[in-house]
């Protein structure tokens, strides 16, 4: 049932979820798994355009504790929500028939559609004859929900590695990433790409994950932030977005329209040199959406090149250029994100940008470790002067992807 895994030393977080599991279910968890949130260093809204992205997994993680049941039922509970959900495993196989659009997919409370959607997607991938034992699953997360750090992928990937092992599937990490994306697209109804699941499943300490979303190949890229005395600050604006019902689907549709009008398989086929010709073929809004994607792909490639040739201190300008493109061409920023970026750069950050899908969430700033507090204070002061709610600032470090903890 639970094959031996390299047990890691217990941490306060794993001890806590094991204790919560015992208190809630009256029996010990058979295992604890975790998956990280992620920060996208650069390459935004490129994943669903078959482009490049360079995210990294962060130290903040979502944990799941699990123990088998004997009644063929599966339950999911989270300390972030009051409503636990229980279904029979047989029912699960047909719980999410076909999503037809945002909000129409979930037969269960939205949060539960993420883990149950992963279970559902894994069942479809399992070899014939697999015995689908039911489990109690309990989740807790250090990743702020809806802040653009992909608590959704952390939840999906923690579920995926746990059930992959518990059901004895041994699927590779790319397949688990696709199962997570399928859960998000079809069980939750959010038309997101595969970047987040890939980062949370394939991330490694001190590395970014360069993803070529055309063939889903990945390359680990050394970031060397700590070696260069750099810190990556997250500025969570506390403005919350709603992917499933927000402007994400609209932007995605614009990109699809742009590619179709230009008779391209995807916007990946278009290069910066081809933009002038594209401008005459597209309406102004579609053109600006396309220009963002094309220039952003170029910025990701440049970031990888500059990291290799000059190191992380030299990538700041590319980060800030990415923000300007997301703000002006893709129009997914909000005043709080713009202020976070402007204030951080004015206070000495090497570069800053919104990260994640936009419409709220978090910005990131690359700062000299010695200046991190100065930059943080400047951002807080700017938010206060603008009458915005106080942002939540914290540092993140590139960390390992999903794994078994206990
Ligand atoms: P992000 O991925 O940027 O945090 P999303 O809107 O994509 O934002 O995903 C957030 C949603 O994912 C939450 O509203 C909730 O439904 C679900 N979720 C994430 N983490 C948890 C958790 N630990 N427990 C329960 N649900 C969670
Ligand atoms: Mg998400």
Oligomer classification: single chain
Radius of gyration: 21 Å
Taking pLDDT < 50 over at least 5 consecutive residues as the criterion, the unreliable ranges are none
Written as H for each helix and E for each strand, in order along the chain, the element string is: HEEEEHHEHHHEEEHHHHHEEHEE
Average of pLDDT: 94
Q: Got a strand count?
A: 12
Major sheet summary line: 8 strands, mixed
Percent of residues in beta strands: 15-25%
The unique ligands bound to this protein are: adenosine-5'-diphosphate, magnesium ion
User: Please, how many helices?
Assistant: 12
CA-CA gap between termini: 14 Å
The backbone outline, from C-alpha atoms, is globular
Assign the structural class, choosing from mainly alpha, mainly beta, alpha/beta, alpha+beta, or little secondary structure. Answer: alpha+beta
Helical residues, percent: 25-40%
EC number: 2.7.1.6
Protein name: Galactokinase
GO cellular component, one term: cytosol
Family: Belongs to the GHMP kinase family. GalK subfamily.
Please tell me about this protein's structure.
A hairpin with a 6-residue loop joins strand 9 and strand 10. Strands 1, 2, 3, 4, 5, 6, 7 and 12 form an eight-stranded mixed beta sheet that branches. This protein has a four-stranded antiparallel beta sheet with strand order 9-10-8-11. It is α+β, with helices and mostly antiparallel strands and 406 residues long. Helix content is 40%, strand content 21%. The model has no long low-confidence stretch (mean pLDDT 94). Bound molecules: adenosine-5'-diphosphate and magnesium ion. One of its GO terms (molecular function) is ATP binding. Keywords: ATP-binding, Carbohydrate metabolism, Cytoplasm, Galactose metabolism, Kinase, Magnesium, Metal-binding, Nucleotide-binding, Transferase. Belongs to the GHMP kinase family. GalK subfamily.
């Amino acid at each position: 049932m639970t094959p031996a895994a390299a047990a890691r030393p217990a941490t306060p977080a794993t001890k806590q979820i094991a204790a919560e599991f015992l208190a809630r279910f009256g029996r010990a968890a058979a295992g604890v798994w975790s998956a990280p949130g992620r920060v996208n260093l650069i390459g935004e809204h490129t994943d669903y355009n078959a482009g490049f992205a360079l995210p990294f997994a962060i130290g903040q993680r979502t944990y799941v504790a699990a123990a088998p049941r004997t009644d063929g039922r599966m339950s999911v509970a989270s300390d972030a929500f009051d409503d636990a959900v229980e279904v029979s495993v047989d029912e699960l196989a047909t719980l999410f028939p076909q999503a037809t659009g945002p909000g129409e997919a979930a037969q269960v409370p939205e949060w539960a559609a993420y883990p149950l959607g992963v279970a559902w997607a894994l069942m479809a991938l399992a070899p014939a004859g697999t015995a689908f034992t039911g489990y109690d699953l309990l989740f807790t997360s250090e990743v702020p929900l809806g802040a653009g750090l992909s608590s959704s992928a952390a939840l999906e990937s923690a579920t995926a590695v746990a059930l992959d092992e518990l059901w004895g599937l041994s699927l590779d990490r790319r397949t688990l990433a696709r199962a997570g994306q399928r859960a998000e697209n079809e069980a939750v109804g959010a038309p997101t790409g595969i970047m987040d699941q890939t980062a949370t499943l394939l991330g490694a300490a001190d590395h970014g994950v360069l993803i070529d979303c055309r063939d889903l190949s990945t390359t680990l890229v050394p970031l060397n932030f700590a070696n260069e005395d750099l810190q990556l600050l997250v500025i969570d604006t506390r403005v919350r977005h709603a992917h499933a019902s927000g402007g994400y689907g609209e932007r995605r549709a614009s990109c699809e329209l742009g590619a179709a009008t230009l008779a391209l398989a995807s916007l990946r086929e278009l290069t910066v040199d081809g933009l002038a010709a594209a401008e005459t073929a597209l309406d102004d809004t579609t053109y600006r959406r396309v220009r963002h994607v094309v220039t952003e792909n170029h910025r990701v490639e440049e970031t990888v090149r500059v990291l290799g040739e000059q190191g992380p201190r030299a990538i700041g300008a590319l980060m800030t250029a990415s923000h300007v493109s997301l703000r002006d061409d893709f129009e997914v920023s909000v005043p709080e994100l713009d202020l976070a970026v402007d204030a951080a750069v004015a206070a000495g950050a090497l570069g800053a940008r919104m990260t994640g899908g936009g419409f709220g969430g978090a910005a990131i700033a690359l700062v000299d470790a010695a200046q991190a507090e100065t930059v943080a204070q400047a951002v807080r002061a700017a938010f206060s002067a603008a009458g915005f709610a106080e942002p939540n600032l914290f540092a993140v470090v590139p960390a390992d992807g999903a794994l078994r903890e206990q």
